[in-house]
Structures are given as structure tokens and as C-alpha cells.
Design a protein that fits this description.
Blueprint lengths: L2 E9 L4 E10 L4 E6 L4 H14 L3 E10 L6 E3 L1 H18 L6 H5 L5 E3 L8 H49 L1 H20 L13 H14 L3 H19 L5 H21 L3 H21 L4
Parallel strand pairs: 3-4
Antiparallel strand pairs: 1-2, 2-4, 5-6
């Protein structure tokens, strides 16, 4: 799922302001990228926070530190004294006024910058990361609720089509019996003209029932329909749940597709084939949306 979060924090001692932007877009797995003035230990801490919050997605974390180094200076008094003595002597030789403080401070080595340690801003950065993650999660939750409603509608469509297929499948044996009986009747009519053939002996009710039973067994999709109902119910539970379920939903989509393919290959009834085609179209919409689910 997509989302954006921004967090800010102040570092009073360093007089700095930290801003952290976190962006997330759809991705099959978690792909985390960190940018900013980060020490190795801080990178580990941020990665741990993100991974505990986001399971899937391409996540970019950008850290900005504004005003870094403000006040982080010191004065070298020995260098300042040496510079003042040298400048004063030069001023006497030139017959000009002695140096003032600004001139002394401007000499190299008098004002020294204090190098900040990589961990100086860690607490503020982590505070901003937590705030950004909270905002990101809120935005992703909103998108998740919309996706859940959409997926629930699609699952309802698939459940309705499954019921339609189940009703049609219940009539398959009777349809086969009528179809086979009609074929035999036509064959008997063709053979009736042949006086050397005992056409009346062809129509054996017991044999007809046996053939119908064999055909019906080959076309039976009861097991597939039972598994399909189970997959749809599991998908519904995952969608209604609070935990990350994207990968499990992807697996269920594959299993639902497998059951639909098996039912379609077993059935010779036009209405069932039509329902299967429609169900596959709905399933493809589910497959596309599941890619956005964490």
C-alpha cells in the first residue's frame, strides 16, 4: 500500500531541527532505502522500527538535519594571544591603531569548529522517525479499509458464482442422462431401417444408467466446490482481520484459480463454463488488488 509520513523533532542542545520523510509504494517484498546523516547504529535502529511497522512495500526514509553545528565552536586562547601580540607589534611598526577583538577573532586558528559526533542527533532523529511512521500507518490504514471493502465485494461475487455453479452441477447427471438417451434414440431410429439388426435390444436401461454414472463421476466437481468455499471463507477472514495478510491472500488467489480451472475442465455444460469465465474475470480483479495489500 502507498503512504506518506513526516515527523519533526528539535534538538535543543545542538539547536537543530530534524525532519524525517517516509514514503511507501507497492512492492512484493519490503525494500527499504535510508538517506541522510546516519550512523551505522542509527541505520539499524531505523530499519528495526520500519520493519516492525511495515511488512511489504518499497519504503524510502529521508532524514534532514537543519542548523547542524549551530554553537558548536570554541576559542583557542593561546592562538588568540599569539595573534594579538603579532598584530599589535605590526600596528606599532606601521604607526596605526592596535587591533580590535574582531580582527583577532578573524585570524586563522582562533575560532575552532567542534566536530559533531555521528550520534549527536540520534534521539531527535528517532523521535522524528516514530512520528513519521505513525502518520504513514494512519494513511495506509485508510487505504487498507478501502481495499478491504473492494475485496469483500469481489469475494461476495465469487461466492455468488460458486453457488450458481453448484446448482448447475447438481443437474449435470440428469442432463447427461437425457443427452445420452437422446443420442441412443436417434441411433435406434437410424438402425430401425436395418432389418438384420435387433434395434430394440440396444436400449438397455441398466446399461444406460451405468454409462450415465460413469460420465457423472468424471464430471463431479463436489470436492472442488467444497475447497472453493473454504478458500473464499479464509479470504474473507483475512480481509476482516487486523494482521498483515497480503502474502496469504496471494496464495489463496492461486488456489481459487486452480479450483476454477479444474471445475472448468471437468464440465461440459455451457452455463457452468460461462460462470467459470465470469469468476476468473472477478478473480483477476482480486489478484490485482491483493498486490496492494500488506
Amino acid at each position: 500500500m502507498t503512504g506518506f509520513g513526516r515527523g519533526t523533532a528539535e534538538h535543543a542542545a545542538r539547536r537543530t531541527r530534524v525532519t524525517v520523510d517516509i514514503r511507501a509504494v507497492n512492492h512484493r517484498y519490503l525494500d527499504l532505502k535510508l538517506r541522510g546523516p546516519l550512523s551505522p547504529s542509527l541505520e539499524d535502529s531505523i530499519s528495526s522500527r520500519v520493519r516492525s511497522t511495515v511488512e511489504r512495500g518499497s519504503v524510502s526514509v529521508v532524514v534532514h538535519v537543519v542548523g547542524s553545528g549551530g554553537g558548536a565552536t570554541r576559542f583557542d586562547t593561546a592562538a588568540a594571544s599569539a595573534a594579538h601580540i603579532a598584530l599589535s607589534e605590526l600596528a606599532r611598526n606601521l604607526g596605526v591603531a592596535p587591533p580590535d577583538l574582531a580582527l583577532v577573532l578573524s585570524q586563522p586558528g582562533v575560532v575552532v569548529s567542534v566536530e559533531e559526533q555521528p550520534t549527536d542527533h540520534d534521539p531527535a532523529i528517532l523521535e522524528a522517525v516514530d512520528a513519521a511512521l505513525a502518520q504513514l500507518v494512519g494513511m495506509r490504514d485508510g487505504e487498507g479499509q478501502a481495499l478491504a471493502r473492494e475485496l469483500t465485494l469481489r469475494i461476495d461475487e465469487l461466492a455468488s458464482l460458486r453457488q450458481t455453479i453448484e446448482k448447475l452441477a447438481a443437474d449435470v447427471p440428469e442432463r447427461m442422462k437425457k443427452r445420452l438417451h437422446e443420442r441412443l434414440r436417434r441411433l435406434l431410429q437410424d438402425e430401425a431401417a436395418d432389418k438384420s439388426t435387433d434395434a430394440a435390444g440396444w436400449l438397455d436401461p441398466a446399461r444406460l444408467a451405468q454409462e450415465v454414472a460413469v460420465l457423472a463421476d468424471r464430471s463431479d466437481v463436489t470436492e472442488e466446490l467444497v475447497r472453493l468455499a473454504s478458500h473464499l471463507e479464509q479470504a474473507r477472514i483475512l480481509i476482516d482481520g487486523k494482521a498483515a495478510s497480503g502474502r496469504r491472500l496471494e496464495f489463496l488467489v492461486q488456489e481459487i484459480g486452480r479450483e476454477l480451472n479444474t471445475i472448468g475442465s471437468k464440465s461440459s455444460v455451457t452455463e457452468i463454463s460461462t460462470a467459470i469465465v465470469e469468476a476468473k474475470a472477478v478473480l483477476e480483479k482480486v489478484r490485482e488488488q491483493v498486490q496492494n495489500v500488506e
